[in-house]
Amino acid sequence: MASASRLVTDKDFQCSTCHCVFTDPVAIPCGHNFCLNCITTHWDTNRLCSCPFCNKTFTDRPLLCVNNLIASVAEKFREPLPQQPGRICKIHHQPLDYVCSNDQNILCYECLDRDHKNHNTVKLEVWMKTKLDQLKDSQEKVDELIRQRQEKIIDLQNSIQAGKTNVERARSGSWKAMHASIRYIKRSFAELQEVLDDKQSAVEAHGKGLVKEIEKEIVQLTQKNAELQQLQPNNDCIQFIQSVRNVRIDPPALTKDWDAESIDCDYSKVEEAVNQLQMSVMNEALMLCDPELPEMQRFSVEVVFDPETAHNLLSVSEDGKQVQYRQFGLTVPRNPQRFECVHNVLAKEGFKANSFYYEIQVKGKTEWDLGVASESINRKGEIRLSPQNGYWTICLRKGNEYTANAGPAIVLNFTKKPQKIGIFVNYEKGQVAFYDVEESVEIYAFTGCTFTEKLFPFFSPGADVDGNKAPLIITPVIGPTTLSSKHLIGASVSQCKYLLYLNGCGRRQAILTLKYCP
């Protein structure tokens, strides 16, 4: 009798690289199989570690292990197939057309009538179709399990990469918080980097450990898949029944729930700890963030733009609190106070022999000039901003170039772009100081100046170029508040000093208040 044809052929066990039956077959994470030597040679001769079949790339070179089960099956395809036995009952010499569901025996009609009359029996074709459906279902489930684990590997690898990105974000973000205390705790930033590196190392180690566990399960599933493939039927039903009679065709019992596994890439706790560090250090380093700013805010004054001094391309709001450039000029009356060649404007009121403070919002702007100017400045011709010409100003150009117009200009550096500028003038001491209000730090100060006439707040919103559409806005000064005794009773000296600082009191006021408290 001629040998039966296989449903599984040697093509199913051929390497897609060398097109020969596998020699030392190995599986890679994408699910494809190759000869050990073929895939090793491919990875050694290519820059990227990828699958030659589907071109999927891997961040790390996978660990390869020979699949002994596939190797043994592949070896059999190098041997001739044995002659298959016929489908005839050896006892009754009748066709074997039935299967007993009770004991899985193959029966002829006589066997069924004599020994299996009270058993559950089905036609061989019906039983075979049922088993084939079960086999197909199990194989689909195994394939799905492999797919899920391959996706989990990709998810874990993406999480590792996201962790690297997040740790770099946390590393750079930590500088903002550490800058306030960097002069007093220089080593803290380096120690924070070590914490981040250790955490990321732990995350990577955990992630790689999970990947290895999944790869082991994939090997198990691949082996089971090969085993199920080996059980694929040929034309000989008897051989198929005999081959699956004592073999479990259900998917392997894998108890681990990989959906519950993930990698913690959240570094918000690190950033929160850094912010707490900043708060605690601020208690001992009040001067670092210039505690005098709240004291200077006590000298806040009402400032409004004077439309009578504004260049005709500047638009002043009705309440006098906003000014911005406009494309088309309006016809305005000429007067000695108005700027004619440059886009400047002054405040309505000037100050002499007193200290004063005000704040201007510069958010969203790429160009501006701010400061104070003497009453007698030139307003009609070419203007050069410098103390020698009666201007004490700082400016922004091109979105990120800050300078103090000290004649010569002094470049100013920032760790964060200021959104609101505070300007304090001590007329008697000859001081004009500029502050980043949100960061409570001094930007620049003109000192040792000699003032002999009124000083007017000076502004220039700049032309509408490079997205410089936002107006300059004079904002209300949120001045210091008064602490009630309930905030101080039971608090330590350092706690009281810190509470007073947060509420706008300078160091001297804090100490005086503490001495007064019982």
From TrEMBL:
It holds the Pfam family PRY. Residues 128-155 form a coiled coil. One of its GO terms (biological process) is innate immune response. CDD domains: Bbox2_TRIM16-like (cd19769), SPRY_PRY_C-I_1 (cd13733). Residues 15-55 form the RING-type domain. One of its GO terms (cellular component) is cytoplasm. GO terms for molecular function: zinc ion binding. Keywords: Coiled coil, Metal-binding, Zinc, Zinc-finger. Residues 283-477 form the B30.2/SPRY domain. Residues 84-124 form the B box-type domain. The keyword Manganese does not apply. This is Uncharacterized protein. The lineage of its organism: Eukaryota, Metazoa, Chordata, Craniata, Vertebrata.
